[in-house]
Write a structure and sequence with these properties.
GO terms for molecular function: helicase activity; zinc ion binding. With 178 residues, the chain is α+β, with helices and mostly antiparallel strands. The chain is 62% helix and 6% strand. It has a four-stranded antiparallel β-sheet with strand order 1-2-3-4. β2 and β3 form a beta hairpin. α1 runs parallel beside α4, α6 packs antiparallel against α7 and α7 packs across α9. The N and C termini lie far apart (77 Å). 18% of the residues are buried.
Length: 178
């Protein structure tokens, strides 16, 4: 079943709600209102039937609900979403019809996207670790109590301790490391 047929089946009898969800003005009762496509005053008539039929005297055109939504500038994906049609199944069916080279390219793009997300996650984790290390270094450098300073130093890595030796309280740190 094509995506168009799926949308028409899902929205059958529900076109007023689908169109309102898309922001298309549809009257509650059968009445003449301004056309959502051409904007003509009192030219548009919507029939509350299964296909969402409408007619505009300004456009001089009959439309079903799907065509009305498309003429109002809505994408088929938006219409499908408002009609409650899930596009993932359709995308997988269409992917099976794509040439092998295109499928390979799509898989490569997915892999690159996942890899970039992994890199961003690791960068966030690294930033958190760096912030924690800087806090510990600050506490050690500013600790007035020898025991507290010793406890803090034990929790630091050797590289951090060496870094502290080059700054500030080198004598205390050398004493504690000895």
């Amino acid at each position: 079943m094509s995506i168009i047929a799926e949308i028409q089946t899902a929205a059958s009898g529900k076109w007023p709600a689908v169109l309102r969800a898309l922001g298309v003005d549809v009257p509650e009762k059968q009445a003449h209102i301004p056309c959502p496509v051409c904007g003509g005053k009192d030219r548009f008539h919507f029939k509350h039937d299964d296909v969402g039929s409408s007619y505009c005297r300004g456009c001089n055109k009959w439309r079903d609900g799907l065509q009305l939504a498309r003429d109002c500038g809505h994408d088929i994906r938006d219409i499908a979403h408002c009609a409650g049609v899930e596009l993932k199944r359709q995308q997988h069916r269409n992917a099976a019809r794509l040439p092998a080279a295109t499928q390979t390219l799509l898989r490569a793009k997915e892999m690159v996207s996942r890899r970039q997300e992994t890199i961003r996650q690791r960068e966030r984790e690294t930033a958190e670790i760096r912030a924690e290390r800087e806090t510990w270094i600050y506490l050690v450098m500013n600790a007035s109590d020898k025991e507290l300073c010793e406890l803090l130093l034990l929790s630091l890595t050797e590289a951090d301790a060496k870094k502290m030796m080059t700054t500030g309280r080198a004598a205390i740190i050398r004493f504690l490391l000895a």
